[in-house]
Amino acid sequence: MTIGIAHSNGLAEDTMLSNGFRDALTALYGDRVTFSECTISSLDEGTHVLDSIISDGDTLIYATGNSALSASVLATSELPVVATGIMDFKDALGSHYKDTSKEYTGTNVTGISSYPDITDQLSLMIEATKDLQAVGLLYSPDDPISIRINRDMEHYLDEAGIPWKEYILPSEDYRTYLNDKAAIEAAAAKEDDPGNDGDDTSDTSVTPDATITDPSQQVIFHGLSFDEVSPRISATWTGGKGQNTTDRSSFTTDLPERASLKKVVNYACRECSVLYLPTASNLDKFASKIASIATRKQVVTVGGDMASGRYTTVTLYQDVYDIGYRAGIIAYNIITEGELPGSYTIKGAASSSYAKLYQDSVSVRFGLSFPKSFTEYDDFLVNYEPGMFTTLVS
Protein backbone atom coordinates (compact mmCIF):
# COMPACT_ATOMS: atom_id res chain seq x y z
CA MET A 1 0.00 0.00 0.00
CA THR A 2 1.32 3.42 -1.00
CA ILE A 3 0.25 6.77 0.44
CA GLY A 4 1.05 10.05 -1.32
CA ILE A 5 2.47 12.95 0.69
CA ALA A 6 2.20 16.41 -0.89
CA HIS A 7 4.17 19.27 0.68
CA SER A 8 3.43 22.95 0.11
CA ASN A 9 6.98 24.20 0.54
CA GLY A 10 9.22 21.48 1.97
CA LEU A 11 10.20 23.65 4.94
CA ALA A 12 10.82 22.45 8.50
CA GLU A 13 7.15 22.50 9.55
CA ASP A 14 6.11 20.39 6.55
CA THR A 15 8.90 17.92 7.32
CA MET A 16 7.86 17.63 10.98
CA LEU A 17 4.21 17.14 10.03
CA SER A 18 5.05 14.39 7.55
CA ASN A 19 7.45 12.73 10.03
CA GLY A 20 4.63 12.43 12.56
CA PHE A 21 2.25 11.18 9.88
CA ARG A 22 4.63 8.51 8.62
CA ASP A 23 5.60 7.39 12.13
CA ALA A 24 1.95 6.80 13.06
CA LEU A 25 1.19 4.79 9.93
CA THR A 26 4.45 2.82 10.12
CA ALA A 27 3.59 1.92 13.72
CA LEU A 28 0.14 0.74 12.61
CA TYR A 29 1.00 -0.95 9.30
CA GLY A 30 4.68 -1.84 9.60
CA ASP A 31 6.35 -2.55 6.26
CA ARG A 32 2.97 -2.91 4.54
CA VAL A 33 2.94 0.84 3.86
CA THR A 34 5.23 2.95 1.69
CA PHE A 35 5.13 6.65 0.88
CA SER A 36 5.59 8.70 -2.29
CA GLU A 37 6.41 12.36 -1.63
CA CYS A 38 6.29 15.50 -3.74
CA THR A 39 6.53 19.27 -3.20
CA ILE A 40 3.96 21.55 -4.83
CA SER A 41 5.86 24.42 -6.47
CA SER A 42 2.82 25.63 -8.45
CA LEU A 43 -0.83 24.65 -8.61
CA ASP A 44 -0.71 23.45 -12.23
CA GLU A 45 2.48 21.45 -11.73
CA GLY A 46 1.22 20.11 -8.42
CA THR A 47 -2.01 18.87 -9.96
CA HIS A 48 -0.02 17.12 -12.70
CA VAL A 49 2.28 15.45 -10.18
CA LEU A 50 -0.66 14.34 -8.05
CA ASP A 51 -2.44 12.97 -11.13
CA SER A 52 0.61 10.74 -11.61
CA ILE A 53 0.57 9.64 -7.96
CA ILE A 54 -3.14 8.84 -8.16
CA SER A 55 -2.68 6.83 -11.37
CA ASP A 56 0.03 4.79 -9.64
CA GLY A 57 -2.65 3.51 -7.28
CA ASP A 58 -1.98 5.48 -4.09
CA THR A 59 -4.56 4.79 -1.38
CA LEU A 60 -4.76 8.28 0.16
CA ILE A 61 -3.13 11.71 -0.12
CA TYR A 62 -1.67 13.56 2.86
CA ALA A 63 -1.38 17.29 2.15
CA THR A 64 0.65 19.72 4.29
CA GLY A 65 -0.29 23.36 3.75
CA ASN A 66 -2.74 25.29 1.58
CA SER A 67 -0.99 24.81 -1.78
CA ALA A 68 -0.80 21.03 -1.37
CA LEU A 69 -4.45 20.87 -0.28
CA SER A 70 -5.61 23.03 -3.23
CA ALA A 71 -3.71 20.85 -5.71
CA SER A 72 -5.06 17.68 -4.10
CA VAL A 73 -8.65 18.90 -4.33
CA LEU A 74 -8.17 19.74 -8.01
CA ALA A 75 -6.55 16.37 -8.69
CA THR A 76 -9.22 14.16 -7.11
CA SER A 77 -12.71 14.29 -5.65
CA GLU A 78 -12.71 10.58 -4.82
CA LEU A 79 -9.39 9.61 -3.22
CA PRO A 80 -9.36 10.48 0.51
CA VAL A 81 -7.31 13.59 1.38
CA VAL A 82 -6.07 14.28 4.91
CA ALA A 83 -4.59 17.75 5.39
CA THR A 84 -2.63 19.59 8.08
CA GLY A 85 -0.83 22.93 8.23
CA ILE A 86 -4.15 24.63 7.37
CA MET A 87 -5.32 27.62 9.41
CA ASP A 88 -8.79 27.81 7.86
CA PHE A 89 -10.20 24.80 5.98
CA LYS A 90 -13.22 26.78 4.78
CA ASP A 91 -10.97 29.37 3.19
CA ALA A 92 -8.55 26.78 1.78
CA LEU A 93 -11.37 24.76 0.22
CA GLY A 94 -13.27 27.82 -0.95
CA SER A 95 -16.47 26.56 0.63
CA HIS A 96 -18.38 26.43 3.89
CA TYR A 97 -18.53 23.39 6.12
CA LYS A 98 -21.39 21.08 5.23
CA ASP A 99 -22.43 21.23 8.87
CA THR A 100 -21.09 24.31 10.68
CA SER A 101 -22.00 22.96 14.11
CA LYS A 102 -19.77 19.91 13.59
CA GLU A 103 -17.35 21.52 11.13
CA TYR A 104 -17.00 18.66 8.67
CA THR A 105 -16.54 19.10 4.93
CA GLY A 106 -18.92 16.54 3.47
CA THR A 107 -16.28 15.89 0.77
CA ASN A 108 -13.25 13.63 0.37
CA VAL A 109 -11.23 16.02 2.59
CA THR A 110 -10.60 16.10 6.33
CA GLY A 111 -7.68 17.00 8.58
CA ILE A 112 -6.46 18.89 11.61
CA SER A 113 -6.48 22.69 11.74
CA SER A 114 -3.52 24.80 12.85
CA TYR A 115 -5.90 27.51 14.08
CA PRO A 116 -4.73 28.46 17.58
CA ASP A 117 -6.57 27.75 20.80
CA ILE A 118 -7.55 31.31 21.70
CA THR A 119 -8.56 30.46 25.27
CA ASP A 120 -5.10 29.01 25.94
CA GLN A 121 -3.49 32.13 24.47
CA LEU A 122 -5.64 34.35 26.68
CA SER A 123 -4.71 32.29 29.77
CA LEU A 124 -1.05 32.70 28.80
CA MET A 125 -1.54 36.46 28.47
CA ILE A 126 -3.16 36.71 31.90
CA GLU A 127 -0.41 34.63 33.56
CA ALA A 128 2.36 36.74 32.01
CA THR A 129 0.96 40.21 32.80
CA LYS A 130 1.11 41.37 36.40
CA ASP A 131 -1.32 44.25 35.99
CA LEU A 132 -3.51 43.51 32.99
CA GLN A 133 -5.48 46.71 32.50
CA ALA A 134 -5.78 46.86 28.71
CA VAL A 135 -4.82 44.66 25.74
CA GLY A 136 -3.46 45.97 22.45
CA LEU A 137 -4.20 43.76 19.43
CA LEU A 138 -1.79 44.41 16.57
CA TYR A 139 -2.49 43.37 12.99
CA SER A 140 -1.68 43.88 9.34
CA PRO A 141 -4.65 44.77 7.12
CA ASP A 142 -3.20 42.46 4.44
CA ASP A 143 -3.82 39.45 6.65
CA PRO A 144 -7.49 38.29 6.89
CA ILE A 145 -6.65 35.30 9.10
CA SER A 146 -4.96 37.54 11.69
CA ILE A 147 -7.99 39.83 11.71
CA ARG A 148 -10.22 36.82 12.37
CA ILE A 149 -7.92 35.60 15.18
CA ASN A 150 -8.00 39.05 16.77
CA ARG A 151 -11.80 39.12 16.59
CA ASP A 152 -11.94 35.72 18.30
CA MET A 153 -9.56 36.98 20.98
CA GLU A 154 -11.80 40.02 21.46
CA HIS A 155 -14.76 37.73 22.14
CA TYR A 156 -12.94 36.02 25.00
CA LEU A 157 -11.51 39.29 26.33
CA ASP A 158 -15.07 40.65 26.48
CA GLU A 159 -16.17 37.56 28.38
CA ALA A 160 -13.32 38.12 30.85
CA GLY A 161 -14.17 41.82 31.19
CA ILE A 162 -10.76 42.95 29.89
CA PRO A 163 -10.69 46.14 27.76
CA TRP A 164 -8.97 45.92 24.37
CA LYS A 165 -8.12 48.03 21.36
CA GLU A 166 -6.90 47.15 17.86
CA TYR A 167 -3.89 48.85 16.27
CA ILE A 168 -3.45 48.61 12.51
CA LEU A 169 0.04 48.61 11.01
CA PRO A 170 -0.62 49.98 7.49
CA SER A 171 1.07 48.55 4.41
CA GLU A 172 1.61 50.24 1.06
CA ASP A 173 -1.21 48.10 -0.37
CA TYR A 174 -3.52 49.35 2.36
CA ARG A 175 -2.62 52.97 1.70
CA THR A 176 -3.42 52.42 -1.99
CA TYR A 177 -6.70 50.86 -0.88
CA LEU A 178 -7.56 53.97 1.15
CA ASN A 179 -6.84 56.15 -1.87
CA ASP A 180 -9.09 53.92 -4.02
CA LYS A 181 -11.86 54.12 -1.45
CA ALA A 182 -11.59 57.92 -1.31
CA ALA A 183 -11.70 58.14 -5.13
CA ILE A 184 -14.84 56.00 -5.30
CA GLU A 185 -16.55 58.02 -2.58
CA ALA A 186 -15.64 61.27 -4.34
CA ALA A 187 -16.99 59.96 -7.66
CA ALA A 188 -20.21 58.78 -5.98
CA ALA A 189 -20.65 62.18 -4.30
CA LYS A 190 -20.32 63.97 -7.65
CA GLU A 191 -22.87 61.67 -9.27
CA ASP A 192 -25.32 62.46 -6.46
CA ASP A 193 -24.65 66.22 -6.71
CA PRO A 194 -27.70 67.90 -8.34
CA GLY A 195 -25.40 70.61 -9.70
CA ASN A 196 -23.16 68.13 -11.52
CA ASP A 197 -23.64 68.55 -15.30
CA GLY A 198 -21.65 65.43 -16.14
CA ASP A 199 -18.84 67.33 -17.88
CA ASP A 200 -16.27 66.83 -15.10
CA THR A 201 -13.18 65.21 -16.63
CA SER A 202 -11.19 64.76 -13.42
CA ASP A 203 -9.54 61.38 -12.91
CA THR A 204 -11.52 59.17 -10.54
CA SER A 205 -9.96 55.89 -11.66
CA VAL A 206 -9.03 53.23 -9.15
CA THR A 207 -6.48 50.45 -9.21
CA PRO A 208 -7.42 47.16 -10.92
CA ASP A 209 -7.73 45.31 -7.59
CA ALA A 210 -10.46 47.62 -6.33
CA THR A 211 -13.89 45.99 -6.39
CA ILE A 212 -17.15 47.90 -5.99
CA THR A 213 -20.08 46.11 -4.41
CA ASP A 214 -23.60 47.57 -4.58
CA PRO A 215 -25.23 49.16 -2.77
CA SER A 216 -22.46 50.21 -0.41
CA GLN A 217 -19.96 51.11 -3.16
CA GLN A 218 -17.19 49.81 -0.90
CA VAL A 219 -13.75 48.82 -2.10
CA ILE A 220 -12.94 45.24 -1.02
CA PHE A 221 -9.46 44.63 0.42
CA HIS A 222 -8.26 41.01 0.52
CA GLY A 223 -11.88 39.87 0.61
CA LEU A 224 -12.83 42.20 3.48
CA SER A 225 -14.87 45.39 3.56
CA PHE A 226 -13.57 48.65 5.01
CA ASP A 227 -15.54 48.08 8.22
CA GLU A 228 -14.04 44.60 8.61
CA VAL A 229 -10.47 45.84 8.05
CA SER A 230 -10.79 48.95 10.23
CA PRO A 231 -9.49 48.82 13.84
CA ARG A 232 -12.00 48.48 16.68
CA ILE A 233 -12.27 49.44 20.36
CA SER A 234 -14.01 47.39 23.05
CA ALA A 235 -17.20 48.61 24.69
CA THR A 236 -15.38 48.55 28.06
CA TRP A 237 -12.48 50.73 26.90
CA THR A 238 -11.89 53.68 29.24
CA GLY A 239 -8.85 55.21 27.58
CA GLY A 240 -6.25 52.58 28.33
CA LYS A 241 -4.08 51.79 31.34
CA GLY A 242 -4.35 54.28 34.16
CA GLN A 243 -7.32 56.01 32.52
CA ASN A 244 -11.00 56.06 33.44
CA THR A 245 -12.67 58.13 30.75
CA THR A 246 -16.39 57.64 30.21
CA ASP A 247 -16.69 59.96 27.19
CA ARG A 248 -16.40 57.47 24.33
CA SER A 249 -16.47 60.28 21.76
CA SER A 250 -12.89 61.06 22.76
CA PHE A 251 -11.64 57.58 21.82
CA THR A 252 -10.08 57.08 18.42
CA THR A 253 -8.25 54.45 16.41
CA ASP A 254 -7.02 57.09 13.97
CA LEU A 255 -3.29 57.49 13.36
CA PRO A 256 -1.56 59.50 10.63
CA GLU A 257 -1.82 57.68 7.29
CA ARG A 258 1.98 57.46 7.04
CA ALA A 259 2.42 56.38 10.67
CA SER A 260 5.50 54.19 11.00
CA LEU A 261 5.57 50.87 12.82
CA LYS A 262 7.57 52.53 15.58
CA LYS A 263 4.98 55.26 16.04
CA VAL A 264 2.06 52.81 16.11
CA VAL A 265 3.74 50.48 18.62
CA ASN A 266 4.80 53.36 20.87
CA TYR A 267 1.24 54.68 20.80
CA ALA A 268 -0.12 51.21 21.70
CA CYS A 269 2.39 50.92 24.55
CA ARG A 270 1.17 54.20 26.08
CA GLU A 271 -2.35 52.78 26.28
CA CYS A 272 -1.90 49.05 26.92
CA SER A 273 -0.28 46.73 29.45
CA VAL A 274 0.23 43.91 26.93
CA LEU A 275 0.46 43.62 23.13
CA TYR A 276 -0.74 40.55 21.23
CA LEU A 277 0.64 39.39 17.86
CA PRO A 278 -1.74 36.90 16.21
CA THR A 279 -0.67 33.45 15.01
CA ALA A 280 0.97 33.11 11.56
CA SER A 281 0.75 36.87 11.08
CA ASN A 282 2.45 39.04 8.49
CA LEU A 283 3.79 40.86 11.55
CA ASP A 284 6.10 37.93 12.39
CA LYS A 285 8.82 39.58 10.32
CA PHE A 286 8.54 42.69 12.52
CA ALA A 287 8.28 40.81 15.82
CA SER A 288 11.83 41.66 16.90
CA LYS A 289 11.26 45.39 16.49
CA ILE A 290 7.79 45.32 18.07
CA ALA A 291 9.00 43.33 21.09
CA SER A 292 12.06 45.55 21.50
CA ILE A 293 9.97 48.73 21.62
CA ALA A 294 7.41 47.19 23.98
CA THR A 295 10.06 45.81 26.33
CA ARG A 296 11.70 49.23 26.64
CA LYS A 297 8.26 50.59 27.55
CA GLN A 298 7.73 47.79 30.11
CA VAL A 299 4.85 46.33 28.10
CA VAL A 300 4.47 42.55 27.90
CA THR A 301 4.25 40.95 24.45
CA VAL A 302 2.45 37.70 23.60
CA GLY A 303 3.52 35.94 20.41
CA GLY A 304 0.98 33.82 18.58
CA ASP A 305 3.56 31.35 17.28
CA MET A 306 7.21 30.31 17.49
CA ALA A 307 8.33 32.85 14.88
CA SER A 308 7.18 35.85 16.90
CA GLY A 309 7.76 34.00 20.18
CA ARG A 310 11.51 34.10 19.55
CA TYR A 311 11.31 37.77 20.59
CA THR A 312 8.14 38.21 22.66
CA THR A 313 7.81 37.82 26.43
CA VAL A 314 5.78 34.61 26.11
CA THR A 315 4.32 32.32 23.44
CA LEU A 316 2.62 28.96 23.04
CA TYR A 317 4.35 26.18 21.14
CA GLN A 318 2.01 24.07 19.04
CA ASP A 319 3.59 20.66 18.43
CA VAL A 320 3.34 20.01 14.69
CA TYR A 321 4.77 16.48 15.02
CA ASP A 322 1.80 15.57 17.20
CA ILE A 323 -0.59 17.07 14.62
CA GLY A 324 1.02 14.96 11.89
CA TYR A 325 0.87 11.85 14.08
CA ARG A 326 -2.83 12.34 14.82
CA ALA A 327 -3.42 12.88 11.10
CA GLY A 328 -1.79 9.49 10.48
CA ILE A 329 -4.26 7.85 12.87
CA ILE A 330 -7.14 9.52 11.00
CA ALA A 331 -5.72 8.17 7.72
CA TYR A 332 -5.55 4.67 9.24
CA ASN A 333 -9.20 4.85 10.31
CA ILE A 334 -10.23 5.96 6.83
CA ILE A 335 -8.24 3.24 5.04
CA THR A 336 -8.75 0.31 7.41
CA GLU A 337 -12.05 1.07 9.11
CA GLY A 338 -13.73 2.52 6.03
CA GLU A 339 -14.60 5.82 7.72
CA LEU A 340 -15.58 8.70 5.42
CA PRO A 341 -13.25 11.75 5.37
CA GLY A 342 -16.14 14.16 4.93
CA SER A 343 -17.81 13.02 8.17
CA TYR A 344 -14.75 13.79 10.32
CA THR A 345 -15.01 16.95 12.38
CA ILE A 346 -12.15 19.35 11.66
CA LYS A 347 -10.45 19.82 15.02
CA GLY A 348 -7.42 21.75 16.20
CA ALA A 349 -4.27 20.60 17.94
CA ALA A 350 -4.69 18.59 21.14
CA SER A 351 -4.44 20.74 24.27
CA SER A 352 -1.77 18.36 25.57
CA SER A 353 0.47 19.27 22.60
CA TYR A 354 0.92 22.91 23.64
CA ALA A 355 3.89 24.17 25.64
CA LYS A 356 4.02 27.53 27.44
CA LEU A 357 7.31 29.30 26.71
CA TYR A 358 8.95 32.48 27.93
CA GLN A 359 11.97 34.45 26.70
CA ASP A 360 14.36 34.81 29.60
CA SER A 361 16.19 37.76 28.04
CA VAL A 362 12.87 39.64 27.85
CA SER A 363 11.10 38.52 31.04
CA VAL A 364 14.08 39.43 33.21
CA ARG A 365 13.51 43.06 32.16
CA PHE A 366 10.08 42.90 33.83
CA GLY A 367 11.24 41.02 36.90
CA LEU A 368 8.93 38.19 35.87
CA SER A 369 9.31 34.65 37.16
CA PHE A 370 7.32 31.75 35.81
CA PRO A 371 6.05 28.51 37.37
CA LYS A 372 7.28 25.07 36.32
CA SER A 373 4.48 24.84 33.76
CA PHE A 374 6.55 27.28 31.64
CA THR A 375 9.82 26.51 29.83
CA GLU A 376 12.45 28.97 28.64
CA TYR A 377 12.20 29.34 24.84
CA ASP A 378 15.79 28.41 23.92
CA ASP A 379 15.98 25.63 26.51
CA PHE A 380 12.83 24.13 25.03
CA LEU A 381 14.30 24.08 21.51
CA VAL A 382 17.48 22.40 22.76
CA ASN A 383 15.61 19.68 24.67
CA TYR A 384 12.65 19.13 22.33
CA GLU A 385 12.20 15.61 20.98
CA PRO A 386 9.53 14.59 18.44
CA GLY A 387 6.83 12.60 20.20
CA MET A 388 7.34 14.08 23.65
CA PHE A 389 3.76 15.42 23.58
CA THR A 390 2.31 12.46 21.67
CA THR A 391 0.47 9.36 22.86
CA LEU A 392 2.10 6.77 20.60
CA VAL A 393 0.17 3.82 19.19
CA SER A 394 1.48 0.32 19.85
Explain what this protein looks like in three dimensions.
With 394 residues, the chain is α/β, with parallel strands linked by helices. The chain has three domains: 2-115 and 319-350, 3-Layer(aba) Sandwich (Rossmann fold), CATH 3.40.50.2300; 118-170 and 231-304, 3-Layer(aba) Sandwich (Rossmann fold); 174-219, no CATH class. The protein has 14 helices and 14 strands. Helix 3 links the parallel strand 3 (61-64) and strand 4 (81-86).
Helix content: 25-40%
Second-tier CATH architecture of the largest domain: 3-Layer(aba) Sandwich
Structural class: alpha/beta
Largest sheet properties: 7 strands, mixed
SS summary, helix count: 14
Query: Which residues sit in consecutive blocks of at least 5 with pLDDT less than 50?
Result: 200-217
* CATH class designation of the largest domain: Alpha Beta
CATH homologous superfamily assignment of the largest domain: Response regulator
What is the CATH fold-level name of the largest domain?
Rossmann fold
Give helix and strand order, one letter per element, not per position: EHEHEHEHEHEHEHEEHHEHEHEHEHEH
Number of strands: 14
* Shape verdict: globular
Give the percentage of residues in beta strands: 15-25%
Terminus-to-terminus distance: 20 Å
Please state the CA-atom Rg, rounded to the nearest Å.
24 Å
Mean pLDDT across the residues is 85
